[in-house]
């Protein structure tokens, strides 16, 4: 084997490995996981770190609430706003939300690591519960509130890690094609 062929193969393997290593991982958190902390204030909890959640602020875990249509478990804002803080960038965030009564507006805001607002959702005071989904990436914090009225969220879905960009996949393909051409020339 020539040195060029070996280099081409090593480059292809390295690029393919980098592409695989950066694959995104979908996550669902229902706040009813086995071993979850007891009902009550979640500030400073470490249980959800395996889900990429670093912390909560002014959030309370509760259960058996009919406002949440899925499993009745969730978290509510303990004050004017609650937040979920992620220990890494996440994307494609979705959640179930609920409010305490008709005409109450649910608001969720997404922030990046520099605390810059990325995206906002508002129910506009319509409905008692629903789903919110966001397209933003590089999300580090979700703040949910309604000016002091209790609101709740549940069934967080999001993606951890990064999705390989088309340019990265094109480089992998190009490296593999180069290795194939080099191999044919050698043969």
Structure notes:
By secondary structure, this protein is α+β, with helices and mostly antiparallel strands. The protein has two helices and eleven strands, in the order αβββββββββββα. A hairpin with a 5-residue loop joins β7 (about 105-110) and β8 (about 115-120). Strands 1, 2, 3, 4, 5, 6, 7, 8, 9, 10 and 11 form an eleven-stranded antiparallel beta sheet that branches. The chain has two domains: about 1-25 and about 165-185; about 25-165, Jelly Rolls (Sandwich), CATH 2.60.120. The termini are close together. The mean pLDDT is about 80. The longest helix has 21 residues, at about 165-185.
Please supply descriptive tags for the structure shown above.
alpha+beta; 187 residues; 11 strands; Jelly Rolls
CATH class of the largest domain: Mainly Beta
Treating each run of at least 4 consecutive H or I residues as one helix, how many helices? Answer: 2
For CATH, the homologous superfamily of the largest domain is named as Galactose-binding lectin
Portion of residues within helices: 10-25%
Name the CATH architecture of the largest domain. Sandwich
Q: Any idea how many domains?
A: 2
Tally of DSSP β-strands: 11
Low-confidence stretches: none
Strand content: 35-45%
> What separation lies between the terminal Cα atoms?
10 Å
* Shape summary: elongated
> What is the structural class?
alpha+beta
The arrangement of helices and strands along the chain is: HEEEEEEEEEEEH
Q: How large, in whole angstroms, is the Cα Rg? A: 22 Å
Query: How confident overall, as mean pLDDT?
Result: 81
Major sheet size, sense and barrel closure:
11 strands, antiparallel
What's the CATH topology label of the largest domain?
Jelly Rolls
